[in-house]
Amino acid sequence: MKRYIPYAVILGLVWCFVHGTINLNNFVLGFIFAPFIMIPFKPLYNFEHDFSVKRGIKKIPPLARYSFVLITEIIKANIVLAKIVLKPKMDIKPGIIAVPIRTKTELGTTVIANTITLTPGTLTIDISDDRSFLYVHTIDASDPDAVARSIRDGLEKYVLEAFE
Amino acid sequence: MISMFTFAITFMVLAIVPCIYRIIKGPTIPDRVVALDAMTVVIVVMLAIYSFDRGSAFFMDVALVLSIIAFVGTVTIAKYLDEGVVL
Amino acid sequence: MIVDTILEILSNIFLVIGLFFVFLGMLGLVRLPDVYNRLHTTTKIGTLGAFGVMISILLKVGFSPIGVKAITVGLFLLLTAPIAAHMIGRAAHRHGVGLCDESVVDEYGKVCTIKK
Q1: Nearest 5°: CA angle at C29, between C28 and C31?
Q2: What InterPro entries does this protein's entry cite (chain C) (predicted)?
Q3: Is the Cβ of C3 closer than 8 Å to some Cβ of chain A?
Q4: What is the ipTM of this complex?
C-alpha cells in the first residue's frame, strides 16, 4: 500500500492539470481514484524500486542542473536545424552511427535516448541487444567520434547523476 | 489592421500546405506517416489559438484528445510496419 | 500596469517565434531528402514551436483553465514526440527504406539484417 502513494500523488497532479483548475479538491479526487487506475495496469509500474524521501531530496540539485542543460540544448538544436532548413543549398552528410552508453537501469536508458532525440542533429533509432549501444541518426556524420564524445561528456554525465 | 488571430490562423493554414504535398507525393509509407503526425501538431496549435480567441476551454480538450490519438495512431502504424501485426 | 504591458509584448514575441518555428518545421518536410532527416525537423522544430505558442497563451491568460490546459498539451507533445519519432525511424529502417544518397555511414544496416 505504501508503494502506491508516490504514484498516486503524481496521478493526482496530472488530474489537476487535465481538469484545468489546480486546487485541493481536485488533487484529493485524483489521489483517491489513482489506485483504481493503477491496479489494471500493474505491469507498467515499477513497484520494486524503493522510494525514500531523503534520497528524493538529495536528487533535486542534479535534476535542476539536468533540466537547465536540456532547455539550453533544445534551443540550440532548433537554431541549428532552422539554419539548415533555410540555407538555399543543401550540404548535409547524414548517417547512422553506434554510440556507447554507460547507463544500467531502464529509466536511465529511456531518459538518455529521449534526451538524445531532443538535442542538436541527433535522433535515436534503436538500441542493441545487450543494451550497451544506441544507434543514432545524425545529420552531420563526417566525424562519428566527435558526436559520440559530445554525447558522453555533455549529456550522459548529467543523466547519470540525476537518474541512477 | 489585421488582428493577431487572423495572422496566426493564416500562417498555420500556410504551414499545412507542405504537409499535404508530402502526404500526396511521399515516396514511401513512413514519409506519409511523418507528414500526418506533423499535420496534427499544426492542427493542435490552431485549436489552441482558436480556444484562446473564443475564450472557451472546451477546444483545448479537443486539442489534448487529438494529440493523444495522433500519438497512439503513429505508434500503431509503426508497429504494423515493423512486425506485421498490431497487437 | 507596466507589468501587464511587458507580459503582453513578451507573449506576442513568443507567439510569433512559435508560429515561425512551426512553419519552418513543415517547410523542412518538403526540403530535406529522406525520411530520417524529415523526422529531425518535425520532432524538434515542430514540438518547440507548439510549446512556444502554448507558453504565449499561458502568459496571456494566467493560471485560468485555458492556460493550464494549454501548458498540459505542450508538455504532452514534448514528452511523446521523441517516442513517436523513435518508433517510426526503427519501423522505416526495418521496412526497407534506405538512406538518401548523401549519407556517409550506416552502422545499423548490418545489425538490422542479422536481426531479421
Answers
A1: 55
A2: PhaG_MnhG_YufB (IPR005133)
A3: no
A4: 0.86
- Helix ranges restricted to H, chain C: 2-31, 35-41, 47-61, 65-95, 108-115
Nearest-Cα distance to chain B for C57, in Å, is 7
Q: Are A96 and A137 in contact (CB under 8 A)?
A: yes
Q: How far is B60 from chain A, CA to nearest CA, in Å?
A: 10
Identify all chain C residues contacting B4, using CB atoms and an 8 Å cutoff.
12, 15
pLDDT at C35 over 50: yes
Our CA-based measurement puts residue B3 at a distance from the nearest CA of chain A, in whole angstroms, of 27
| DSSP string for B29-78 | HHHHHHHHHHHHHHHHHHHHHHHHHHT-THHHHHHHHHHHHHHHHHHHHH
Instruction: Fill in the DSSP letter of residue C106.
Output: E
Taking an 8 Å cut-off on Cβ atoms, the answer to whether A20 and B64 are in contact is: no
| pLDDT score at A134 | 84
Partner-chain contact C50 B12, CB within 8 Å? no
Q: Is the pLDDT of residue A48 over 70?
A: no
Nearest Cα residue to C85 out of A132, A85, B71: B71
The answer to whether the CB of A163 falls within 8 A of the CB of A104 is no
DSSP A3-27: THHHHHHHHHHHHHHHHS--SHHHH
Radius of gyration of chain B (CA): 16
DSSP-derived secondary structure letter, A154:
I
Say whether residue B62 is in contact with chain C using an 8 A CB cutoff.
no
